[in-house]
């Protein structure tokens, strides 16, 4: 859980960082583009006025700069490459002596960084000379750097909030899981102690009566020893089931391999039919059904399904077992003609020590963990377990295991 929680926190931080960077980066670039567009608009106003009054180009340029209160540098570049500053601005203008660069500005606003970065646009005037209108980019760059810093602060703050909320919700989630785990453990221990207490009480009672010589008849003594032996066997079965459930509940990975599922089902069915000659057993088992899993655990799963039929159905109740490949899963369906389960039990969550029918006597030898073990093994194999009414009148257990 801690590993998955850390993974969730890291993913949250990455997603937050990416989204903050994308949104903030887009806003920062958009703001820079808007500032640049405003500079280009100022340059274009002067060029437009110069083109409108070619005979008075310099005067038109100066008047436009003054009337519009534009912070622009205006210079005259002769066709020989000589340059004269006509109007100064806050731009530390390095001058342009390269006529090719001047002509490049005739097509529109252009940025040059030699030797100082600035934006300029050119206009041709009478006599083959040029007017260069230039603007400083210092404020634009300052705003851009400031926005980048703000973006970094915003992203760091968003990441901090993501970390805080991840830790907060994960702690709440983990506390909830811990509380649920504690409740399950308490319920499990309570049910297990109750199941163990019954045979222990029987064993203790018969042991005291035998030790005090209260059974004088050989037949009574034999019956008492038989009763004690059966309770010991029941305790052994319960402890074995508890250990298996504990093993299935461990987080350590199980080495899965390809299992010939149809061969495994046929082997258990053969034993079942040999020991239950009074039952009608219908089978439909193919020869090409393989799954990925633990052979021992899958064997126990089939054994538990058939053992439940032995314990909880009449000796002559019919049984139907079918196996087939459905997509990428093997579907095992085991049906019986017994009394089935209460209607409220179908679709119920199968939990530890779950007895769907309290009237089922413990004398059947069950530990109450049969369906719990089946459910745990199915979950271990990432499968599905479905309990429904059988067409034979009893219970139908459907198990789907990935191939």
Q: What is the 3D shape?
A: rod-shaped
- Straight-line distance between termini: 28 Å
How many strands appear in the DSSP assignment?
12
Whole-number count of domains? 2
**CATH architecture verdict of the largest domain:** 2-Layer Sandwich
The helix content is: 40-55%
- Category by helix and strand content: alpha+beta
Largest sheet: 5 strands, antiparallel
Spatial ordering of strands, largest sheet:
2-1-5-4-3
Instruction: Fill in the CATH topology of the largest domain.
Output: Heat Shock Protein 90
- How many helical elements? 8
- Helix and strand element order: HHEEHEEEHHEHEEHEEHEE
The fraction of residues in strands falls at: 15-25%
From the structure provided, what is the oligomeric state, counting identical versus distinct chains? Answer: single chain
Average pLDDT score: 81
Supply the CATH superfamily name of the largest domain: Histidine kinase-like ATPase, C-terminal domain
| Top CATH class of the largest domain | Alpha Beta
Radius of gyration: 43 Å
Low-pLDDT segments, ≥5 res? 351-367
């Amino acid at each position: 859980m801690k590993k998955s929680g850390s993974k969730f926190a890291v993913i949250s931080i990455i997603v937050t960082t990416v989204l903050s960077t994308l949104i903030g980066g887009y806003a920062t670039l958009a703001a820079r583009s808007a500032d640049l567009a405003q500079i280009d608009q100022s340059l274009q106003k002067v060029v437009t006025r110069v083109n409108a009054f070619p005979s008075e180009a310099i005067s038109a340029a100066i008047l436009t700069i003054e009337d519009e209160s534009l912070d622009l540098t205006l210079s005259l570049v002769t066709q020989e490459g000589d340059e004269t500053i006509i109007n100064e601005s806050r731009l530390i203008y390095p001058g342009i002596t390269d006529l090719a660069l001047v002509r490049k500005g005739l097509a529109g606003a252009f940025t040059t960084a030699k030797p100082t970065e600035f934006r300029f646009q050119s206009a041709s005037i009478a006599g083959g000379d040029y007017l260069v209108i230039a603007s400083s980019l210092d404020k634009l760059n300052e705003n851009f750097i400031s926005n980048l810093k703000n973006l970094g602060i915003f992203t760091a703050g968003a990441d901090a909030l993501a970390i805080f909320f991840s830790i907060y919700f994960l702690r709440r989630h983990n506390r909830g899981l811990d509380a649920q785990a504690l409740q399950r453990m308490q319920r499990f221990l309570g049910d297990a102690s109750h199941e163990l207490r019954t045979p222990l009480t029987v064993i203790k009672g018969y042991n005291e009566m035998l030790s005090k010589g209260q059974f004088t008849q050989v037949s009574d003594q034999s019956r008492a020893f038989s009763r004690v032996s059966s309770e010991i066997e029941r305790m052994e079965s319960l402890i074995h089931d508890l250990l298996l459930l504990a093993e299935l509940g461990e987080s350590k990975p199980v080495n899965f391999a390809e299992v010939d599922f149809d061969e495994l089902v046929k082997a258990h069915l053969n034993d079942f039919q040999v020991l239950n000659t009074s039952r009608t057993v219908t089978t439909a088992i193919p020869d090409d059904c393989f799954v990925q899993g633990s052979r021992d655990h899958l064997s126990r799963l089939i054994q538990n399904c058939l053992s439940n039929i032995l314990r909880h159905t009449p000796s002559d109740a019919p049984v139907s077992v079918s196996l087939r490949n459905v997509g990428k899963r093997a579907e095992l369906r085991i049906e019986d003609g017994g009394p089935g389960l209460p209607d409220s039990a179908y679709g119920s969550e199968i939990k530890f020590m779950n007895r769907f029918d309290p009237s089922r006597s413990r004398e059947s030898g069950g530990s109450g963990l049969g369906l719990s073990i089946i459910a745990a093994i199915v979950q271990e194999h990432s499968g599905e377990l479905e309990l429904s009414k059988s067409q034979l009148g009893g219970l139908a257990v459907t198990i789907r295991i990935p191939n």
